[in-house]
Each structure stands twice: as C-alpha cells, then as structure tokens.
Amino acid sequence: MDERRWHEVLGDRRWLVLTGAGVSTDSGIPDYRGPDSPPRTPMTYQEFIRTPEARQRYWARAHVGWSRMRQAEPNLTHRTLVSMQAAGRLTGLITQNVDGLHERAGHRDVIDLHGRIDRVVCLACHQVTSRAELHDRLSALNPGYEDRIGEFAPDGDVVLADTADFVVAECLRCGGDLKPDVVFFGENVPKDRVERSYALVAEAESLVVLGSSLQVMSGLRFVKAAHKRGIPIVIVNRGTTRGDDLATLKVDAGCAETLRAVGVSTG
Ligand SMILES: [Zn+2]
C-alpha cells in the first residue's frame, strides 16, 4: 500500500464512494465474488417469479439466513464513512450491498442501488413492508424452522437440502406473492436510483470504490462515467476488478485495513 500515492491522487478532494460486498465481509457477511468465495449461482428474478417451488425454496433458505443476517453489525469501514460524511468529506454514497449496514451505522442519504434485504415488496400490489414483521409471520407458520443449520451464503441465504415442507406467507393486503425488496440477478436497477447515482457522478470530485469487483454493469457504469469526466478514481478491492483499467490507483487489499493505512479511519 503506497500511502503517499493515495494522497497524491486524492489530495483534499471530497469522495463519492461506491461500496460492494467487500465492505461487509468484515461484518461476517459472505461475498459472491471474493477471491476466497466458491462460485455461486444465485436465484435469478426469472426463476423466482416462474414457480411457487422456487419462491418456497428462496423463502425457506432466506428465513434461516435472516436470523443470522440481522445479527451482523457495522464495521470500521461503515463507521469511518459515517464520520467522513459528518466532516463534510463525502459528496455521496452509493452501495451495491443490500444489508443496510451503512444506514445502521448512521449514514444518511445512501443510495441502495440493489435495494434492502430488510424490506419486502408484494409482486401484485407493490406494497413495501418490513422484513422483521414477515419473519415473525414465517416463524409462526414454520415453528422451529430457523434453527436448521446450513452454510451461510451471500445475501442472507443459507444452503438447505430440502425445503419442500416450508410454508410461504402471502401479502396481507392482497394475497399476492412476496419478494425481498432487492434487485435480483436478471432484474434491472430501478431507473430513479440509476439517475440519482449518475447525478452524483456528474458532480463528483473523485470516485472511491470500496470492496467491489465491479462484475456487474450496475456498478461499473458509474466508474466508466467518472473516467469519462477525468476525475481521479481509486479502487480498493481484494483481487482484480473490471474497473482496474479505468482506475487512477488500484489498491489490492481489504477496505478497513486500507482506510487505516491512509489515516482516514476512526478506529
Ligand atoms: Zn399485495
């Protein structure tokens, strides 16, 4: 880690920050694409909406996963970004994470590009409700189910062999099918979030990417837009990213350790 180079590149410019799964691994939430992660094929939006069996499988695994996901606590990176925001050193925060840990740490005005796992949306009437409330309903419908043991996977998923006995809950308002309020693979990011993110890039003095391999276009396009504007781009990530060629500086390391090394962390 070349600390001097970091300060040369960023100077006293304020940061627009884009975060990915690598920020939350320090909170015990696994990453799809970290260098140590096994390859995974998460359920796509198309699979989810196609059959009741797919939704049953999703909700059974997510029900067990939520019990663990909700216990995750913000870490040094989340806290550092909160104090940087308070000190006026950020111009915005866009996250690809759905865990809500930036908000839990106290961050304001976060753009949750891929939604929030602690919210639920009805596919029929589009009402958004709380995941905690759904969890209680699912627990009542499936007593003891959440004590099942399986490998903890990304996005609050737990690997379970057989989910055929799980009872799924419906929308209390209209009886429609419920989906977590997150953008699945194969689904588009809602347009207003994309536009608000581009607006932040258009005004940005620098872009700092923390813990994302930028494998999906939903995040990479903002790095491309920043590159087009010619502002400094710093990428901190373990392993290569699809934005490495666009970066002014690439740091191949963890987020918390890097923020500590460059002297901005609060812990
Ligand atoms: Zn509904």
UniProtKB/TrEMBL annotation:
Lineage top rank: taxon: Bacteria
Family, similarity comment: Belongs to the sirtuin family. Class II subfamily.
Keyword annotations from UniProtKB, A to Z: Cytoplasm, Metal-binding, NAD, Transferase, Zinc
CDD domains per UniProt: SIRT4
Cofactor annotation remark: Binds 1 zinc ion per subunit.
NCBIfam families reported in the protein's UniProt record: PRK05333.1
Localization in the cell: Cytoplasm
Protein name: NAD-dependent protein deacetylase
Binding positions for Zn(2+) per the UniProt entry: 122, 125, 171, 174
Catalytic residue positions: 114
Reaction(s) the record says it catalyses: N(6)-acetyl-L-lysyl-[protein] + NAD(+) + H2O = 2''-O-acetyl-ADP-D-ribose + nicotinamide + L-lysyl-[protein]
Function: NAD-dependent protein deacetylase which modulates the activities of several enzymes which are inactive in their acetylated form.
E.C. number(s) listed in UniProt: 2.3.1.286
Deacetylase sirtuin-type domain location: 1-267
Class of the enzyme per the UniProt entry, highest EC level: transferase
Xref: InterPro entries: DHS-like_NAD/FAD-binding_dom, NAD-dep_sirtuin_deacylases, Sirtuin, Sirtuin_cat_small_dom_sf, Sirtuin_class_II, Ssirtuin_cat_dom
Stretches that traverse the bilayer: none
Alphabetical list of Gene3D superfamilies matching this protein: SIR2/SIRT2 'Small Domain (3.30.1600.10), TPP-binding domain (3.40.50.1220)
Organism: Aeromicrobium wangtongii
Binding locations of NAD(+): 20-40, 96-99, 211-213, 237-239, 255
Cofactor: Zn(2+)
Principal subcellular localization: cytoplasm
Pfam families per record: SIR2
